[in-house]
User: Fold these one by one.
Assistant:
Number 1:
Amino acid sequence: MIRTGSGHAPCHHGEILQGVFLDTAGRRCAGLVTLPMAGPGSRAKFVRRPGTPPEALTAVPAGRTKAVRAAALAVAECAPRSGQPPCGGELILTGGIPVGLGMGSSTSDVIAAVRAVADSYGVRLAPETVARLAVRAEQACDPLMWDGRPVLFAQREGRVLETLGPALPPLLVVGCALGGGAPVDTLALPVPEPDENEVRAFERLRTLLRRAVATADARLLGEVATASARIGQRRLRHPEFDALAAVSRRVGAVGVQIAHSGAVAGVLFDPAAPGLRHRVRGCLRALDAQGIPATRTFTTSGTTPSSKELPHGPAHRRGDRPAGPDTARRPARLPALRDDEGGVRPRRGTAPAGHGSGAPR
């Protein structure tokens, strides 16, 4: 009996740290650490068609070329392991990750596709193997195959430079979108070659982040995220960034983080801070006053982020992730917020988000 395989992959909320780091051989590598987030993700089903050539793959929705490429690579990887002949099939993708905000939507598709193919062959692939296939499918990918474990990941090479620990320090994140949620075309941005001083600065941030994880120090993590975001501003040039950082300081947050391949950003709080609800409400009011649309407030704790959203109730997206090709999906709409009385609170300065360029390059 031919088995229909299923797979799932999470998303993330941009980066905590991104830069150029040294590997164990002293070689420079582009690397990043993402902020895990529960909630929307990609799901895939793979229905094998025995007797068809392995390149005979179709996708629903049509046009998900990266996911189809990943599925083909996964068939070539899994069929020999299972002792079954490779064949074509149909890949069915669903999910609710907003596109264009830098939340790893394309990588999530790719990983879900690989996992679905592996499941159809009764094979379990290690995260390292999934990462290798994902990079081959989309040139650079996010470390979502580690399911929230904090790793410094070489996104262009698909390898872990360092496992930082079992989990990031617990955080409460007030998510928002810069530039009204407009897409960021990272491929069109200049990529300056870092000098020795910049590499040393990234390595210092890496050391501080390692310490923050080891000691569960949310404040130190916030300092690292803010420093990384400021460096990223040299390329991204978000006009609201200074206002965002000022809001963070004013409400007693530990720092800010941004996506380096999109518009999503976050104000980071220590969940153990006194008067947390008051601080978060003040943050939401201040963001609104600056015309920065808030998206969702969520917590992270342990190895898996929590979908519980505080203090104003769950944020609601106005529609799931749209169907369409990798490069031309319908723009995603930012989620609405609820106030404490349960009514939808309007935001200013909201604009639709387009499709970003995928994992940071």
Number 2:
Amino acid sequence: MSRLKDKFSAQAVLQALAAPALALLAAFALSSAVIMATGKDPFHAFYVMVDFGFKSDSQVWIINKAIPYYLSAAAVAIGFRMNLFNIGVDGQYRVAAFFAAVVGGALALPGVLQIPVIIITAMAVGALWAGIAGVLKTTRGVSEVITTIMLNSIAGSLIGYFLSENKLGVKDGNLFHTPTIPDSGRFFLLPTTPDPIYGTVIIAAVIGLAYWFVLGRTRFGFDLRAVGRSESAAAASGVSVRRMVVTSMLLSGAVAGLVGMPTLLNKSFSYGTDFPTGVGFTGIAIALLGRNHPIGMALAALLWGFLERTGIQLEFEGYEQEIVGVMQGVIVLCVVIAYEIVRRVVLRRQQSAVGAELSAQNTPSTESTQAEKAGTTA
């Protein structure tokens, strides 16, 4: 059995290393083919991306861009670990950021109170918005995919209704935004050069640690993953499936509420019609790319920011602006396919190893067979 365990551990390491390597090679080859199809030199494109992406100002830009991407991916990954597809992170973070901006703009508290109030408001609103889908799934059997998509649309309409001059909005030229959050409600910046890094990177780090600990080191995380693997088996062991579904959606929505905080507390200080959208859908791709692992999603978020940053420079070099989008899609597909291929190969090897071990245990050795024959003869 010890030899069998050693084989399984070696195969696990093989899967962890082979899948990313295979995905990167495939993504590099396919991206090169796409660039060549446009009549451009792919190697020059990669050189431009690496050269521009590793400049100091680009590195700061990439990190700041990766913060909301990582938070969005963590929110999606909580649902994925439960076998739930929370496609409504985009609506959840937008409506959460809007009401958090309204509360932050209406209060004038000391910073030690103002910032926590804004963050707690965002998390509460995000959890409430996602909880609607969880309740509908457990009470009416409505798919969370349908409800979260519909709630995305409702969130946009709700924000559009309140973000007007005679309601909660303030007109500034052609744009509408909420009242500006005072200085006491603004998150600190890390003093880096040439530009500062958003202090909300600490929030992302805390969420990553909490995600790793709660889902991987607690009974709650075990129950959540058990329900995701088999609802019937989890229910037979005493786990309340309905409670876990609602709880996971509430947690996912609470983390989704934090997605807008880097922009709100470190950059815009208000919610306006120009507030970034689509981050929730990007989080789905990053969660898939990072395999729902906190470190994997962090690397995927940085990679996504790197591609967006260097894509700007590629346009100045005469490359098509859609190239970066194609690269992002190719990378996600290659990662998903590569992990599935490696998983199947490793599974077959494990099954063969188990079969060989059981066959060896059931087959009598040569010495014991000879002893039995000698005893029979005697």
Number 3:
Amino acid sequence: MRLLDNIIEAARSQPATIVLCEADDPRVLAAAQRAQSKGIARIMLVGARQNIEACAQQHGISLADLVIEDPATSSHLATVEAALLALRAPKGMQPEDAAKQIQDPLCFANMLVHCNLADGSVAGAVYSTADVVRCALQLIGKAPDAELVSSFFLMLMCQPHHPYKGGMIFSDCGLVIDPNAEQLASIAQAAAESARRLLQTEPRVAMLSFSTAGSAHHPAVDKVIKAAQLVKQRCPDLAIDEDIQLDAALVPEIAARKLPNSHVKGQANVLIFPTLEAGNIAYKAAERLGQLTAIGPLLQGLRKPANDLSRGCSSDDIYAVIAITSLQTHSTS
């Protein structure tokens, strides 16, 4: 997986401080030690020290150079608890609520990011996606220039049968259920920037539909066309095709027949799906039938990176997301 190797090398050149809040899980702990020892990130572990040490001992994982922040005893407790109360008091949070909530490792980890004590967060090996996303939205918040927070998957192609080797961005497959045209445009812009950062090449964006260049008429097609036109207005130099079917987005010969004036020319590396339903089905089909490697869902549009994991993830998956999160910190700082 040369692309993933390139991402890891780029992260190693500028390691960020990444906080992990599920450190009594051996998958997380093994990935943390590997990331720390390989130099792709400076790792902070959040959780009960006794549980983390017991997990490390049971699985033969070294805690060398790993910083442990136990919410019960951390020197940062007063700082992050006060910041949590200040942040959530307008929503009705009381001091006793803040004191209780800050003991949740996910909350504590994201408040470390909020307070600039860490650069990014990775969770989801144990916590649900809903919990991870909600906490990130509430405590880290949107980037100042972001219209909304959305998600993407980094899809890696490295099998012999894949038509080319490398990566693609699929968005949004995990968060925004039925975006309107303005939201879809925002998702496309964010995904293009994610591609530029992670694929290390210029994005080529396909706004997917069941129509190509107006071959079908339906409000769902109109939404995609309007979104693409908004993106073109905002990013006139971006290669983007509006209302294009998947085959024309990925196969140059089909693009030449269906869309002779294509900007992407059947070589899309960013696929924007009209709904979450379409995107979620597509990435799972690509993963299970096409044997692409799916990394994510990764969040875009946050003030600082906070990424989700699948609860079925491996230690290798977590290591990859740590590297991606470390790299993302340089685009949001």
